[in-house]
Amino acid sequence: MDRELISLKLTTLRHTAPGMRPAGWVIGSLLAAATWAAAFVAGGDDARHSILTLGLLFWGLGAAIGPVLMSGAGTLRPSWFALLPIPRRALGRGLLVSVYVSIAAALVLVALLAVSLHAALLDPVTLVVAIPGALLTWVFVIALSRLVYGLLGAAMGSRIGIEIASIQFGLMFAGMFAGWIPVSIAIQRTPDLLATGITDPAVTSGLDMSPTSWSVLAVERAARGDWGGALLLLGALALCAGAAIVAAVPLLVPSTSPRTRRRRGRRRSAGLVAGAGLLPRTQTGAVISKELRQWSRDGWRMVEVQSAVWGGVFIGALALTSEDLRVIAAFSGLFVAFMLGIAACTMYGQDGSAVWLDVVGQDETSVRADVRGRQWGAVLVFLPKVLVVTALFVVLSQAWWAVPILLAALPALFGAASGAAVLVAAVGVSPGVDPRQRVGPNDAVGNISLHVWVVILLISVAVAPTAGMVALLAMSPSAWLAALTAVVGLANGFGAAWLLGRITIGYLTARLPDLFSRIRYGQVFRDPATSGALDWFESATLKGEQEAKARQQKERADRVAKSSAR
Amino acid sequence: MTPEPSTPNSAPPGGAVPALELAGLRREFADKVAVDSIDLRVPPGSFFGLVGPNGAGKTTALSMAVGLLRPSAGRALVHGVDVWSDPIEAKRLLGVLPDGLALPERLTGGELLTFWGRFRRLPTQTVADRTAELLRILELEEAEALGTLVGEYSTGMRKKIGLATALLHSPRLLVLDEPYEAVDPVSARVLTAILRRFTDAGGSVIISSHVMSLVEQLCDRVAIIARGQVLADGTLDEVRGGGSLEDRFVELVGTTDLAEEDLAWIGS
């Protein structure tokens, strides 16, 4: 049974495009090598202890939460086996075993085995403790990864899963935009860490409490001759691994309870939704209200919003760690507002084939209502979150002088982002998996790398007037100039949102069926026009999607040909 | 099998403008011709059935007829209004239930209908009244009370809420792709009653289906379509020619015979 499942997993991996996996393997290999190298160059036993306990904790955390983001191809899904007459325990065990057979899991093991270097340097005899210790830690963290994934309800099935996925994306964004801050601090401090280790005893004992540190502690005890203590620690590690396995197996087998969660609580009577509410009872009001509900209930859209919020929070937090750069924290909210542009630039693709409603419901004003409603919906979803993040970090950084700049920059950025997002979403619609078939956190959209750059470019150009005023204000600060800058920022925001929205309306009025065709059929049934920037972007994104699809088909065909040749 | 020539189109009663007219409608996907220059006329007030095997081109033809898919050639006219040159006027007259497409999945049925009514610019009270009535008649009230989202609906419930969106603005022509698929028998009766009332009031319905008995029971006019071509078209009696619709369908479309030795292992 276990062999068949491992074989099925490897076959599944062979038949899917490698995507980002090779890049992940390279990064993982470099990190594993760095773990070994850091342990090797450590200034002494204590320093090596610190480096290993800290490093292994990071490896444990990475292994535990990594699969939330990597839940796509290659993972055997329990539902595939629901109808097979296999005992659930055997199936759960087989599915768990199959998780250990992967390059990512092998890299984790290589990194965890760095403890054997510690053992070899302390006393080579303790390798008999280090190697089983590393293996037990490996069994523990990989089982933990399945446990975490299972508890998240396939990551996207629960609010907590969405939040954890968002935190990871937020960390990634913060790393991209402000990662240089901790890196510069780390570079300043690393020689100390490598030379002396962590000198704060509270941090050291805290790290020692993590099961990922126990193999290190066991080696040290054995080196001191306390073999009983070493065995006790290995036993405790084995217990943790066993507990993680026992807890993970039931979560891996197919669930017999319904997947859907009923929304209980507030009664949603037709009268209430039809007649009440703060939004105008107009065509645009209808779209705003639909969009607000989608943003607040669709897990994939929630991840977009929350990732932006967490990204802003982490950027602010990173900035606060540096004495020289803490004033940057005051502008964390701007990042969240900017991320509206990235998050919403897939809104038509997120709707998937539901865009048919826009096509068959088209009237003289419907396209305008749809575009404006989507813009307002995105702004209303992001606005309270941006205000909270901004207020929090202005207070924490005490950078009160930033307030006039924020008063101008926030509306300008909101307007530009909402306009750029809707334009890019319509012209470069990037459909992912259709709404009902989505499972993983990355299912909602296709390849949007070009979209992100276009949004960044459009926003940068669109906020130029406000940026100019802010520069002027910085050079010659005065109260009236601050007020003028705020007015310009507000006008700039409304102007950018109006203009970019207007271009979108013009585009969609003529090409609404083509928007649907791109989602439903992956092509446009119209003679390609290549006269302007919109046509260029439309055909470039369409070509990108078609080429990616063709490449995947070719890779699949090549793999099938290779398999047949064997 | 050699396809028989199509039965000549019967002129619509009284020479009235057809509720739906497809003239030379054609669509290719790469090298494959999905719909091969078909001509169809749905007279006003009729209950028209479009039948054909899987992949025959029914959904493609209907998608072009309602403005969802650009044709390579030909025209689609709704009550004389060209869907592709005057889409706004044509879509005002149309109610559409597509097959297998998503809906705003995170709305409840009531929220979806309310959104749709407002989007169609119906008066607020009309939207509220029609939403409540449709949810009650289509037995979706309980799901609404529980706050069940459309994404959590069963296939049959999705068909029903889809039909409600098609009906909400009181169109003159309903184009329904597989409306009875996965709908339970009780709801199917309700559905039939609704559609009958619609045609009695002068509206026209075109449905696609694989189920011959259903089409035979409901429709007064039928077209058989296969490999993108109309093989027969006319009143139900004209098309079935004295036999059953299924016999006529098999005769025109062909069948895969099961030889004695095929699948001999079944039940062994």
TrEMBL record, chain A:
Keywords: Membrane, Transmembrane, Transmembrane helix. The chain crosses the membrane at residues 23-44, 56-76, 97-121, 127-152, 164-187, 230-253, 303-321, 327-348, 376-396, 402-429, 450-474, 480-501. Residues 547-566 are annotated as: Disordered. The keyword Transmembrane helix applies. This is ABC-2 type transport system permease protein. The lineage of its organism: Bacteria, Bacillati, Actinomycetota, Actinomycetes, Micrococcales.
UniProtKB/TrEMBL annotation, chain B:
The keyword Flavoprotein does not apply. It is a peripheral membrane protein. It comes from the Bacteria. It holds the Pfam family ABC_tran. GO terms for molecular function: ATP binding. It is found in: Cell membrane. Its main location: membrane. Keywords: Antibiotic resistance, ATP-binding, Nucleotide-binding, Transport. Residues 20-252 form the ABC transporter domain. This is ABC-2 type transport system ATP-binding protein.
